[in-house]
Specification:
The structure holds two protein chains of two kinds.
Chain A lengths: L1 E3 H4 L9 H10 L3 E8 L6 E12 L2 E10 L5 E6 L9 E6 L3 E4 L6 E4 L3 E3 L2 E3 L1 E3 L2 H4 L21 H5 L1 E7 L9 H12 L23 E4 L7 E8 L8 H9 L7 H13 L4 E4 L7 E6 L5 E3 L7 E3 L5 E4 L8 E4 L3 E2 L12 E7 L2 H11 L5 H8 L6 H16 L2 E2 L4 E3 L8 E5 H8 L5 H11 L3 E4 L6 E5 L10 H12 L20 H15 L3 E2 L5 E2 L1 H4 L10 H9 L18 E2 L4 H14 L5 E12 L2 E13 L2 E3 L6 E3 L2 H14 L6 E4 L5 E10 L17 E8 L1 H6 L7 E6 H7 L15 E10 L4 H12 L3 E10 L8 E10 L8 H19 L2 E2 L5
Helix pairs in contact in A: 5-12, 6-7, 7-10, 8-9, 11-13, 12-13, 14-18, 21-22
Chain B lengths: L1 H20 L3 H12 L4 H6 L10 H37 L18 H14 L4 E2 L5 E3 H4 L11 H4 L4 E7 L2 E5 L4 H10 L4 E10 L11 E11 L4 H16 L5 E5 L5 E10 L16 E10 L1 H6 L8 E8 H9 L12 H4 L4
Parallel strand pairs in B: 1-5
Antiparallel strand pairs in B: 2-4, 3-4, 5-6, 6-10, 7-8, 8-9, 9-10
Helix pairs in contact in B: 1-4, 2-4, 5-9, 5-11
The chains are: A alpha+beta, B alpha+beta.
Bound molecules: zinc ion.
The site of zinc ion has 8 residues of chain B, from loops.
Amino acid sequence: MRVSLKWLQDYVDVTVSAEELGRLLTMAGIEVEAIHPVGEAWNHVWTARIDGLSRHPNADRLQLVDAYYGADRRIQVVTGATNISVGDVVPVGLVGTRYRDSHVSPPAERILQPTVMRGIPSEAMVMSGFELGLNDDHSGILILPRETRVGVPLAEALGDTVIELDLKGRPDGLSMIGVAREVAALTNQKVRFPDGDITPSRARRADEPLGVTIDDPNLCPRFVSVLLKDVKIGPSPAWMQERLQAAGIRAINNVVDITNFVMIEWGQPLHAFDYDHVPAGHLVARAAKPGETLQTLAAEREAVTLNPDMVIVAGHPDHGGHPYSLAGIIGGASTEISDQSTSILLEAANWKQSNVRRTARALLPRPTDASRRFERGVPQDHALPAALRAARLMVDLAGASMVGNAIDAWPGHATRNTIQMPLSECTRLLGITYQPETVASVFTRLGFAFSIHGAGVDTVFSVEAPVWRLDIEQAADLVEEVARIDGYEKVPSTIMEGALPQLPQALSIFWEDAVRDILAGSGHAEIVPYTWTSVARLDRVPHASSADLAQLVDARVHPKVNPVRISNPASGDQEVMRTSSLQSMLDAVRAGLRHEDRDVHLFDVGRIFVPQSGDLPEERRIVTIGMGAHRSGDAIGERHENGFYDLKATVEAILARLGVSGHGYIALAHPAFHPYRTAAIVLDHRPEAAGRKPVRPEDVLGVIGEVDRAVASGNGISERVLLASLDLDRLIAKARDVVPVAPLPRFQAVIEDLAFILPDAIPAERLTSSILRTGAPLLERVDMFDAYTGDRVPAGTRSLAYTLTFRAPDHTLSGEEVTPLRAKIVSQAERQVGAKLRGPDA
Amino acid sequence: MSELIRALEVLEGTALGSLNGASDVDSLERWRLEVLGRKGLLAETLKGLGTLTADQRPQAGQVANRVKTSLEVTFAVRLESIQQEVRRHELDAERLDVTMPASPRPRGSLHPVTKIRREIEEAFARLGFTSVEGPEVEWDQSNFTMLNIPPDHPARDIQDSFYIEGGSGTGGEMLLRTQTSPVQIRTMLAHKPPIRIIAPGRTYRNEATDASHEAMFTQVEGLCVDRNVTMADLRGTLTAVTRALFGPDREIRFRCGYFPFVEPGAEVDMTCHVCNGSGCRVCKRTGWIELGGAGMVHPKVLANVGIDPSVYSGWAFGCGLERFAMLRYGIDDIRLFYDNDLRFLRQFA
Ligand SMILES: [Zn+2]
């Protein structure tokens, strides 16, 4: 809300500077968004009277203005404006005037220079509100009230300071009186209430009926109606126009201006109906009937269709019961005040917040000044004083006579309760023990009615909840009032004394961070992609089509489901929550490759969203790793290819950190990946049973592999890309942070190297597993140290060389113990997996 | 006798001369064998001692000792200098240009939001706070209603939400949570006081994006509930955490502020860490930097989760992690966080 200090001074003496006032209000919870000094830039602008107007001899569109600005000073001004006439008082800017130029976009600040316009010198300008920086009106020259003194600096005539307030939590702040109350409390001043004294000019005659019906006091607790006749529509006086302008409201005519003025003054929206168009002067507050329509006064003036959730003011059922206005929001065309109106029916009512809010949102592009107030809450008590204040202004400024007394229907009278606030409540909530006098002084300054019971620390304040502060309902609210008026800065700084809670740390956060550290430590950069995406993007990574292992992998990290859809997305790229992290990783890899041709190694520890019927979606934690085709070599300029095994090493590092073992890799055919460079990562893996025992869905952890060339290029990448994606929730369920330490061996080991020739079709893990099982328990470990494919081995095979470590826990092994075991390993390897010992000649 | 002495002196002269000619370790060793060896020239010459009379011996012995020592010492010095020369050559051959670039090794990096979250978590952990999580797709009930923001409350305007299509159920409508505060609700429903938690997490608001606003962002929420927990404790806690992050000179200021789920409520500012409060570009010349919102948990919120507000009190605060990271690392555009530009991310290595 824009608060003119000039206007505010009508209700309270402002005893501090605008800046200090801004600071006080901000500290007290009414945030000052801006302070606009009005007229600061008007050093060379004067009020002037137009004494003559003539056509420019060389330009039809221009006029020559003879402007008089006091003390025999005159100046000739060339203008293109057409809204001026002789006798008008206007602002005239002399050379050096700073003004806003609306002819360029965006508008620019300029300084007026002497110029010659079509042969006539011009050393001044008559100015619009826009050029002055006063408002956004650049349609014509700002016409000042006729009674404005001519020949004074404009700042003297119009200068003001406007403070812009953010009032999100304070309904009463949407009024001058509300702000005045606050200023009075903060600066220890008194509030002056506006003059609402009025007695009817005469009683109502029989042909001047007036009536109000309230259908549901819950929807309309109070409705005040006043009849005003002999109204002469015309402009409102300059002081009122000026105040409305400062508040950012356009002046229209005296009747409309008065309703707006009182709305801003009291915070009570008013509406004026044309009495002659309201049969029997009877207004009904009721819920709309299905299908009823109303042509509103909103800019578009289109007819809106109503529903029973909407509350309207309508005519009496005996007279058709037509809808007249959207209650608390906006008027309707059929009862609109026109220049010919002479009798008006003034409404000052109270409407239910939630209905006003829903209706305004449903029917209008933006809230109105009235609906914004009602949806935040307008005190019921303001309806009558505001109505009478408006009536008084109508009488004073529009020549109206008030006919009969106001009708005040108040069936929904809400009683405000009395709140008990023990002094100790301040201590309990704030950590401050106030003197009872301090608290009493705060309540007095705020204008709250209260009584004091008890004494000292046992003092209890009984406070009548003030009618104008609907936000004050309980003791905690009063504690805040005390704190903010006495000063929030008085809250001391302490630390909780109580026992430490025994709340367990979320393990998920711990493990997520452990995985992040492993990945960052191994050279990967963490990315955070948007969790929303589009279906088209998701579709750039295909799903498995056959019912096999690939589908189990999909179900785990790349489920083919209807994604969680956002009903009001801001853009097409935000239409669904991601069901997979693969596509966003490809996007990030592509972006990385734009800047670098190597070391594009990324990871994402984030969530995918899997819908669950009737419940919130499952938010599954996924770790995703992406690698471009190359990494730096050890030497300068050297570049190595990234391969499957590089990524596998990273995955192994993660699994090791999580203490997961017994997992394995099964060759996987998946349409998003290279057919022969991709694996499913599974738990509880037994190589000897691979291929024979079906993989259980819950054992699938994820996928690792090289992305299919076509899929990569479909995602804008023209080189090899490696991706791994693992279900971190599954991993966390298996994770062990503390793995018991194995004792260091006490006896010497026997080390043997063995090389085997193994057919390409047999996975290496089967040979390793065969060796291990045969050698158990003396065979402590098996490490492959060489793999060879080429001319020196038969086609269709490769050579795999292992280091075998034999050790007994209780004695040093002898050659006699190892030799037969070694022979058995060799023979079993041949029997079980078809591996042949590689001779020294090969 | 003088013959023997002369012979020794001649030997010394010639041996020293040939020692000077020995330029490597091998020729030195040959010289040593030839002169000082068991069957070397010196030993041969000294055999003459045996032919001397007893009274001649001391003088000849003296000369012999002097010559021997002279030869040995000179040899040792010479050997040392040649060895040094050799080492110098070896090292010289290993000379590096230390200004050449390091071996390329990709450095990993943590996202700035991860880094700042951990710093905040660590600061709170010292005060006994544990980190907890909640879902990003939430019920209206937990995100709004239970937090004293009933349907049709104007505060819902400040947090325009993304709703989920067809998403309604036990907790009302589904939406992308607009704040991490629903984690407060979930925690208080599941645990009895005392409670000290912080809840970092992703949040979403339907608002236009610019240099300081993102529709997806990260918040951290803090909650402390116990008997006699006060706003002063809130100030003390935030002061400790702010100092841990932004230096020991930081001060905290409360302004009265409105958030529906706290009463009394406060906006929290800290003295500017760039200018120390004297006013600069970062703090828009006010000397203060806004950190977030806070306050005492609203009695209605406590009652909603079955905690008696007349027995227990609590405080809560919330702030944007990106905002903290922007202040901490001097980032001027929030959109950089989710652009995933490697040139930006690598700076957090
Ligand atoms: Zn500063």
